[in-house]
Fold:
Amino acid sequence: MSDNARQSENPLSEPSLTQEHLQALFEISQSVNSITEIGSLLERVMDIAIRAAEAERGFLVLGDGDALKVRTARNISPEIAMDETGFSRSIVKEVARSRHPILTADAQADPHFAGIESLIVKEIHAVASVPFHLRGRVLGAIYLDSKTRRSGFNPGTLAFLAAFANQAAIAIENAQLLENLRVENRLLRTQVDRHYGFSGLIGHSQKMQQVILLLRKIVNSDIPTLFEGESGTGKELAARALHNEGPRKHKPFMALYCGNIPEHLLESELFGHKKGAFTGAISDKHGLLEVYNGGTFFLDEVADIPPAIQAKLLRVLQDGEIRRVGDTETRHVDVRILSATNKALAKEVEKGRFREDLYYRLNVITVTMPPLREREGDIPLLVNHFLKKHAEKAGASVKRVTSKAMQILESYHWPGNVRELENAIERAIVLADDDDITPAELIIAPVPKTAVARKTLKQHEREIVLRSLEQTGGNKTRTAEILGVSLRWLHYKLAEWKRTEAK
Ligand SMILES: Nc1ncnc2c1ncn2[C@@H]1O[C@H](COP(=O)(O)OP(=O)(O)OP(=O)(O)O)[C@@H](O)[C@H]1O
Ligand SMILES: [Mg+2]
Structure:
């Protein structure tokens, strides 16, 4: 080993770090510690080291012993860096093994270079290498060299690099831990999904499992699919899941609500229009089907689409053709069409309100989303899912639902299905003072399942209103707020019940 190399085996004893070095170290440790993604962190570490030594080439390895792997490099290919016969490989190996930095300002005199015929190696004058180690464990090392400029390769720089590598080692270990957690989290998520769900669609009841099984079967096809089900049963969520898990996942997903939209507006939204096609059409406009070409198009409340537009949609499904309003040109689009309705579409066909041919095109596959009351055992699963989701969103600690409260949640009949359940949990998180969600925070009427069949909707309505009034101590404004109704409606109902009681 040359004098230079021996001299620098303990870089911190002599010479000491300058004021600039310390300042740079402080700044670097701050910026390096704020990067949590391992890839970007290593790039940053590499750049800082190259600049500090004014090196021309360099690379960074992670691992130990024979498992050293190049993770980033500058002006040198990873293969050359770790070439079996190469000198740089032997240097980083030695640095990692001994955990001591190496500095060689006269490379050709160094034994590492003896017998190496490579022309590039023959031109190298200076080499520096520092290890990353932490708590007695080696994480990897950095290698730097230079053909021309040797000024940066001095003991002061090496001392700086060694101190910097100590800082970087902490950041690298943290980022690696975080990366492992991310990988593990992803793995667990897919495992949970595999067992219980499908891209955020949760449920292990038999009915939901059947839905998920069906979705898995059709996810890779372009088959038009119709989602039927009561309000809040997850029709849109299922459609999004189908898109997110399918081959079009990198293309956009567009959900267009088709209910209660004036016909000409819906037509121009879907198909676009030509300038002057109607009053107000001041320029050419692309339709959404064109804009979202390649992606998935979700027609929400499809039963409400007026007949003229139904005819145009049929052409999209049959031939992938669209024509802008007022245009003669036909354009081609390639979109996967999904649709949803909470009306029984077959009935709409029977009544002559929906085209039969379009009906058969839209629902090559029908996915029927089961209402919550038929999803035996899913409520606790959903409750825990929403607890986590909304506690995170609200920045609150994750709450626990007491067994009494869970009982109430499980026995309620949920007319608004999953959406209503989700709202109830979101509200309870805000209302709960401590970590427990008790029946007091559940603003729903605890109607036992068995009683459901024997009561009319009106009776339920009355019971819910009166119970909420009781909970708010008779505060009507607050009761109306909680129930999501107007104060006028509440007054009207109370008066109506008074009248019937009086009879
Ligand atoms: N199986 C499920 N797992 C997790 N979340 C769900 C599930 N089903 C529904 N949700 C959630 O419930 C809410 C309502 O779902 P979504 O909007 O998909 O229902 P919908 O059937 O389209 O309702 P609507 O008929 O009223 O349009 C959403 O916040 C959705 O994320
Ligand atoms: Mg919907």
